[in-house]
Amino acid sequence: MKFYNFKDLSESQRVELLMLWNTVYPERLNYDTLIDFDTYLTHLKKVSHLLVLDENKKIRGWYFDFIRDGEKWFAILLDPEIQGMGLGTKMLSLAKEKEVELNGWVIDHNNHKKKNGEMYRSPLNFYLKNGFEALSNVRLELKNISAVKIIWKK
Length: 154
What we know:
27% of the residues lie in helices and 37% in strands.
């Protein structure tokens, strides 16, 4: 697996990332079309992408960060087949080298199903093990998601 930085994504990369997104996240967060996914991406400010590519140049992981309300926010998605191999921790380490603070929303329960019918497993413990703090009093409560804010500071 190799890591590559991108400021802008090609259409073929966005198609792969849409499939990864719809595989990893709960079905209620899935995007139906590339146009819907692109709309989400275009609203991100000062975005940068780190892609994990396998030997066939297939995207297996994606870290992206952006500015929201004057703060640096991020998300990580990893193909379930490569979870547990240390790649998520490596992506976070690379981000921590260049940032002084990272913020994210994390679903902190296992109540949602993924598109394939499996239950979504909260990654909260992963982030706590990697030095993040969960701000239990700061929550995102929408009709399709309930999440806690996490933060890491250098």
